[in-house]
Design goal:
Length: 392
Amino acid sequence: MINDNEAWIEDCFMLKDSEKFKVMIKVYENIFVNKEYFANKIGMGRSTVFNWLQKENASFNTKSKTKICQAFNLLDTVWRDSFSNEKIFEKALSEYEKIISQPSIRVENTLVKLQKSTKVKQMKVDNLSKEEMQILLESELEKKSAFFLFELSKVLQQQKEINEALRVLMLIESKESTFRYTHENQIRHQKAILLSSNDIKDWDTAIHILRSLYHSTHYHLKEPEILTLLASNYKRKALVHLDRREEVDMALITSAICLYEDAYHLKADNHKYYDAINLAYLYNLVDVIEIEYADKKEIETLYAELLRVWRIDTNNWWEVCSDAEFLMLLGKVDLAILKLNSFLEKHKVEPFELAVTIRQLKLYIEFTEDQNAKAFLDYLRESVKYLNLKEI
């Protein structure tokens, strides 16, 4: 245990905010330019910036730190993390740089820029095989900061390039960087998301990562979404690729229910609906397997409780669809179809969004033979045809 004297001595040898600021100026000289320019850029007085530069122990309040980070395009954690000297801090700064590009921009733009780098331009790219191009791109990516790679992995995930996203993430794990150690839980969480996807389906490895995050770090208290993901993987292992109810691993289903319930209680009110609808499906499934019919009392109680805190976003497919699925599970299939029909008349829906719902319904029907669910599924399939979408 560190005593007060040791803590004081350690603190004395850590970089102060004023020293960090001077290193930032050195690294981002083209952004700083001069005192007058920078003061105007961040909306502060010139004398304030002058004091930051002159005083050995200049103080920076939260507002000042935020404005400086915005100017230099840095994460605000750059102030909280400790560094023993200026050289180490200067080397680590790139790990705190934000990516300016928005996730909505096609990731191909990023890869095109890499292809246009000096090293690539000197080669005859057209003559390279796909494998050779991949190696070349990876050699360029290795030069990027761990933070850049982490954000790129998330962009690739959004673009459904799951294998590429995982490959980029694994590059971070091979790099020695401050970001890798300060964001280890976030990196592992992202890896579990990718491994859980339908493209990879490495549920066992994902479960191992998520259980570790849950039991050893209590990361779930900050990110209850890992409980949802762990529950989903248990559910898939219990149900996918089976032919009969008798083959369902009820221990895994029970674990999934417990995790969905924990996530439901930990999440903010407007995020509870996803865990709630998964619970509703599993409650019905367990009833059908164990007592041959769906009791529905638990679902009625859950739905009533959810509606007391949930303000449904009528422009959000997932929320509207979850509400409709609740109605369908409660036997009100006509009302469920009416709600979805109203949404589809006003909003564009992505094929992926319909596909996820259809996949869930098909799996549920396979084990329950629920007639309401079959009618609901038929409606969704007709919608796919009507909207000229390809069912996945």
